[in-house]
Each structure stands twice: as structure tokens, then as C-alpha cells.
Write a structure and sequence with these properties.
Helix content is 21%, strand content 23%. β3 and β4 form a beta hairpin. The chain is elongated, with a radius of gyration of 37 Å. The protein has a nine-stranded mixed beta barrel with strand order 1-2-3-4-5-6-8-9-10. With 269 residues, the protein is of the alpha+beta class. The protein is built from five helices and ten strands; from the N terminus they run ααβααββββββββαβ. The termini are far apart.
């Protein structure tokens, strides 16, 4: 009898211990606990700056136009388009090679002579009275040297500007076309260039801006102004051309073209 009673008591104790777990298992489960916050992304985020991508240090703001610069095509003007628009305005005002018009423009207003857009030489192939052509021969649509006009409307991809002395008497600019431009601000006599790889240009300082003073053979004026942006991270090159310089009538509008360059890391020498 005692052994049977012991068995009964043991069963009662066993069910008493197991019953709460069975009851909880049958209850409706509540909301799951929130997962711990994920402190780090599963994959590293892509770098947002080129300096981060290459592991180089950010470029500090500059205090002058000196340094290495890369053309920002998104923020820059289309130089060709601006010249073509200005030439078209002159043409619409009677600059077709006739009396009272522009004697140096053909029918198309192309800034580069002989590249489509109508006859760039007044008095050839189109009849008429020649429009007052100078020197009795064919005339290009611009009195400016074609290479110079192309430089002003087709900027280089990269620039490197070096101030040779503390007073800024000479400032040298080299580009990715293996050319060097020496800007002199002391009023010296400018030597004529022997080839396209080196050119001397008269210039002056206007505050921290470097401004050139250039002319065409016919007396048309044009200039290039190099300004440092207020943030010290960009360079502004502003090209200004009188109407005569790009082939327009004397009373034609001036052309302003702005190119924007971003600061580049200096290459160790």
C-alpha cells in the first residue's frame, strides 16, 4: 500500500510541475520582441567624394587662382553655341555681306571658317556685290586667328596655373594640350609667338582676378578673366569678345562665355 501511495504522490507532483508549461504553450503568442538596433550597415556605403574614393585628403579652399584645375562641363557655357548665336544676331541685322552689313560673315555664322553652315567667304559662289570685302580677297568670318578663336570656344580639360613671383608679374598657365601661356602684368613688350606651344599675353591684376588684354589684327578686343570662386574650390574663366573679334559688325553685341573649373589634387613633382 505504501508503494502504491508513493507512486500516486509522485505522479501528482510531476503533473503539478509540467502543467504550467503546457498551459503557456496553449496560450496565444504575444508580439515578438523588437530586434536589437543594427549599428552598422551590412555593406559599406559608397563614397560620395572622389577624395574618399581614392583615399586622398579633401582639397582645402584655395586663396589664389594658382593650382591644378579640371573643367566642369555641367556648369560651363557652350562657347561655340554662344558665338554662333551672336553671329546669327548680326546676320539678322543685315550682316549678310550686303551694303551696310557685316563684311566678314557668310551665311552660316559658323565660328570656325570652312566648316559648314553656308559660305564663310563673302562674294564667293553666292553672287552679290561682295559686301565691301577688304584687301580685294576672301575674308574669314572672324578677324581673329582661327586657332585663337577655337581656344576661346573649346576650352582644355585641365589647367595648371603657377605664379612665378610674389608680385604676380608673371603667371604661367599650362594645359592638357601641351601648351604654355605666359601672362605678364608689368607692361613689358610682348614677344610674338613662334609656334602654338608657347604664347606671351599682356595682362593685369584686378584684385585677385587676372585679366588679359588682347586684340585682333583689325582692332577687335577680347579678354580672359580668371577668378577664384568664393568657396575657394572653383576657378571661373570668363571670355569676353567684342563683335569685331568674333566677326560681327562694330555695333554688334559682345559675347561672354564662362568656363568653370574644379580644384584638383596637386601632382607631386
Amino acid at each position: 500500500m505504501k508503494s502504491r501511495a508513493s507512486i500516486v504522490v509522485g505522479l501528482i507532483c510531476f503533473f503539478a510541475a509540467v502543467a504550467p508549461g503546457l498551459v503557456r504553450a496553449q496560450e496565444t503568442p504575444g508580439p515578438l520582441p523588437a530586434p536589437p538596433p543594427q549599428l552598422e550597415p551590412l555593406e559599406p556605403a559608397a563614397p560620395t567624394r572622389s577624395s574618399e574614393a581614392t583615399g586622398s585628403k579633401p582639397i582645402p579652399p584655395r586663396t589664389s587662382i594658382a593650382g591644378a584645375w579640371k573643367l566642369n562641363t555641367d556648369d560651363s557655357d557652350d562657347g561655340r553655341k554662344k558665338v554662333q548665336q551672336a553671329q546669327s544676331k548680326n546676320q539678322g541685322n543685315g550682316g549678310n555681306g550686303g551694303n551696310g552689313g557685316n563684311p566678314r560673315m557668310g551665311g552660316g555664322g559658323n565660328p570656325y571658317p570652312g566648316q559648314g553652315g553656308g559660305n564663310p567667304y563673302p562674294g564667293q559662289g553666292g553672287g552679290g556685290n561682295g559686301g565691301g570685302a577688304r584687301r580685294g580677297g576672301p575674308n574669314q568670318p572672324s578677324d581673329m586667328d582661327p586657332g585663337t578663336l577655337r581656344d576661346l570656344t573649346d576650352p582644355p580639360e585641365t589647367l595648371s596655373i603657377v605664379q612665378k613671383d610674389t608680385k604676380g608679374v608673371e603667371v604661367d598657365l599650362t594645359d592638357d594640350r601641351t601648351r604654355k601661356f605666359a601672362f605678364f602684368t608689368d607692361g613689358r613688350k610682348i614677344e610674338k609667338s613662334k609656334d602654338d606651344t608657347y604664347q606671351e599675353i599682356a595682362a593685369k591684376w584686378d584684385g585677385r582676378s587676372l585679366v588679359t588684354d588682347e586684340k585682333t589684327p583689325r582692332g577687335g578686343k577680347f579678354s580672359r578673366t580668371f577668378d577664384l570662386a568664393p568657396n575657394g574650390q572653383q576657378l571661373y574663366e570668363t571670355v569676353r569678345m567684342d563683335a569685331i573679334a568674333y566677326g560681327g559688325a562694330k555695333s554688334g553685341p559682345q559675347v561672354y562665355i564662362q568656363y568653370v573649373y574644379d580644384a584638383e589634387q596637386e601632382v607631386p613633382r
